[in-house]
Design goal:
mainly alpha; Serine Threonine Protein Phosphatase 5, Tetratricopeptide repeat; two-stranded antiparallel ribbon; about 50% helix
Length: about 500
């Protein structure tokens, strides 16, 4: 049923979602305005999850995954120089999530929330509020400041500071969970099969929201405002009400029979195109830990060996030796990730555990950091099909054994490992913590030797929303890939 709903919506729903003409809204002018928000919500979930290879490439393969050194690039072309830290404007993620006609999931979800209020359904409204938080964090973590409070309400909305956005995202999560709990037993209809993330399970949505709260709050834990404005709310999160099993993870199952590539497994496309190889950074860390996930994350090279590729190969060398050396001699994406229905994971049980381990180690919540750390490792191993007790015990007591003297380094490194192949989130972990340490690429564009900290705003925002763009740039202190966003030491 879920796949039928997904196919129906993606084949037949063609509502406009461009911020340039939102006043001509995608709403019938001669029929009732009390539209069921369910199909719109499905659309927002699918496009907002980042499932499509069209957005997966831009968020991960040629962005976060090479910055965080999950992958190394072997493709040659104008769009494949991020591994060399080439500075450039970055339209694609902004456009996809926020302003692309017929797709922008943030715009769809804006209407979902409004329609839910019109039909007076607080369950649908507050589930959509949780989903809005997830998507907004994806975009602001890439760019920093962005339109938020007046997004989709004005033709040229002002950019809001990331600090204000983050604080409101946390408020939204608190209120949404409280409202779902308040109205859960009052007979309001949920999304049911239209909810391709949790199939209408409200308890799962609450766990997702609470875990997302941990992710957002802890990401801001290095800011001056954390102790007074964020920590009190973080301390109210009940760890038992976060994602606590593999079954509770936030994930979408691709639809191999779907009508477009937007609903199919993006990694199967990428692997077939031979554009990436396992980064040497990832290989070395897994190899040094005797980590069995190496044999899941990577496919052996043509000689049957496991070899990682140093990031940032010069394009002249790739042009000369791509087919003869880089393709056969280094590890491609592992076959687990290439199956038609391999889950597309947004927030895993393992990440939930490592978030709790971080919070406990920093003294923000009750609980034992080592226990959460070990639980996270087991959760990640299980997620990738590794269940043998002997293998798991050997790993927990080997080089990865918890060491209180380097606890945070271990927690962040294991989270980075478990996030594979979610490069966008892994890049945020590295930016926040500095762990694991990234290796210097073989070649970087002159003057761009350090790992980028954000993506510059799209060109068309500078052109069509100039006043608000300029105000945001002045507030942030620039618009380069090295301008720090708020939680990363910026303003």
């Amino acid at each position: 049923m879920k796949n039928k709903i997904l196919t129906f919506v993606l084949a037949g729903l063609m509502l406009a979602a461009c911020t340039k003409n939102f006043e001509e809204l995608d709403r019938p002018k001669t029929t009732s305005t009390r539209i069921d928000p369910g199909p719109l919500f499905t659309r927002s979930l699918v496009t907002g999850s980042g499932l499509s290879v069209g957005i997966w490439q831009w968020m991960h393969q040629i962005s976060g995954s090479v910055y965080a050194q999950h992958f190394a690039n072997i493709q040659v072309g104008a769009n494949f120089t991020s591994d060399n830290y080439e500075p450039r404007a970055w339209n694609d993620v902004w456009e996809w999530y926020y302003s692309r006609a017929n797709f922008a999931p943030l715009h769809y979800n804006y209407h979902v929330m409004n329609l839910s209020r019109e039909i007076e359904n607080p369950i649908k409204e507050n589930v959509a509020r949780v989903w809005n938080v997830y998507m907004m964090q994806q975009v602001t973590d890439m760019y920093g400041d962005m339109p938020y409070f007046k997004a989709f309400k004005e033709i040229k909305p002002p950019f809001d500071s990331q600090k204000d956005i983050y604080l409101d995202l946390l408020k939204e999560l608190r209120e949404a969970v409280a409202n779902i709990e308040k109205y859960q037993g009052f007979g309001y209809q949920g999304y049911g099969a239209a909810d391709v993330l949790y199939q209408g399970n409200l308890d799962s949505w609450k766990r997702f929201a609470n875990t997302l709260y941990l992710r957002i709050a802890l990401r801001a834990s290095n800011t001056p405002e954390f102790t007074s404005l964020i920590l009190p709310g973080l301390q109210q999160i009940n760890p038992d009400q976060t994602i606590s099993s593999l079954q509770q993870a936030a994930r979408i199952i691709p639809d191999p029979a779907g009508p477009t590539y937007h609903v199919k497994n993006p990694l199967s496309f990428v692997a077939g195109w031979d554009e990436v190889r396992l980064s040497k950074t990832m290989y070395d860390i897994l190899n040094n830990l005797n980590d069995p996930r190496l044999f899941v994350y990577a496919a052996p090279n043509a000689a049957g060996q496991y070899v990682g590729l140093p990031n940032g190969q010069p394009h002249s060398l790739l042009s000369e030796q791509r087919d003869s050396h880089f393709k056969p001699d280094f590890c491609d994406i592992g076959p687990y990730f290439l199956q038609d229905r391999t889950p597309h994971v947004l927030l895993s049980y393992a990440e939930s555990c490592f978030l709790k381990a971080e919070a406990a180690q920093k003294g923000f919540i009750a609980g034992n950091a080592e226990s959460y750390y070990n639980e996270g490792i087991v959760a990640s191993l299980n997620q990738f099909g590794i269940f043998g007790n002997d293998t798991i015990n050997a790993y927990l007591n080997g080089p990865a054994k918890f060491d209180p003297s380097k606890a945070l380094e271990q927690i962040f490194t294991q989270r980075w490992i478990a996030l594979y192949p979610n490069g966008h989130e892994a890049w945020s972990v590295v930016r926040q913590s500095g762990f694991p340490q990234m290796r210097q690429p073989v070649y970087t564009f002159p003057g761009n030797e350090q790992m980028p900290r954000r993506k510059p705003f799209p060109d068309y925002e500078r052109q069509s929303n100039a006043d608000n763009y300029n105000a945001a740039v002045a507030r942030m202190g620039g618009d380069s890939q090295y301008t720090r966003i708020w939680w990363d030491g910026g303003r």
